[in-house]
Design goal:
This protein is globular. The protein is mainly alpha-helical and 166 residues long. α4 packs antiparallel against α5.
Length: 166
């Protein structure tokens, strides 16, 4: 991680934020694995509709990501009340879930005819299409979640820019 950020022409502050983003994204990968595992168990094994399975997997990943980010990505934030931070993180995550569901639906609808033409098992095509939608949505929502949580949930009080949320 140090090598990656050292190679970039960044100021010390930008380098620190780049490291935070890499940590946040790493935690996000762990969350994505949990999200997709739960999503696919519900979708494939229990045949729960994707519109229900996705928020369940997403919710698990939110709690997991909050705890990991609070501990590793933003350790200085542990000095603040966990309840307030969890509420802020959850609110940002609910907005993220809305973005996630919309993107998942759009991508799945666009990918469906392509996947269906290549995979001749309807259920397998459906599972692949829904996973493509979820994975794409997670990638997009990563940027919303990092930006919003950095500016609100995990911002350091001393370094907060004027006019930002407290």
């Amino acid at each position: 991680m140090v090598g990656i950020t050292q190679a970039l022409p960044l100021s010390p502050r930008q380098r620190k934020e780049a490291k935070r983003f890499i940590k946040f994204a790493t935690v996000g990968v762990a969350g994505m694995i949990a999200h997709l595992t739960i999503f696919n168990i519900l979708l494939v094994v229990f045949r729960v509709p994707a519109i229900i399975a996705n928020p369940i997997g997403f919710s698990w990943a939110v709690v997991q990501n909050f705890l990991l980010n609070r501990r590793w990505t933003f350790p200085e934030s542990q000095a603040h009340a966990i309840g307030k931070q969890l509420g802020q993180f959850a609110l940002i995550s609910v907005v993220g879930l809305g973005i996630n569901l919309a993107i998942q639906w759009i991508v799945a609808k666009l990918a469906d005819p392509i996947v269906a033409s290549m995979v001749h098992d309807d259920h397998l095509a459906h599972v692949i299409t829904e996973n493509v939608g979820v994975i794409f949505a997670i990638g997009v929502v990563l940027f919303w979640n990092f930006g919003a949580n950095r500016l609100w949930t995990f911002r350091s009080k001393a370094a907060a820019p004027a006019g930002t949320l407290s």
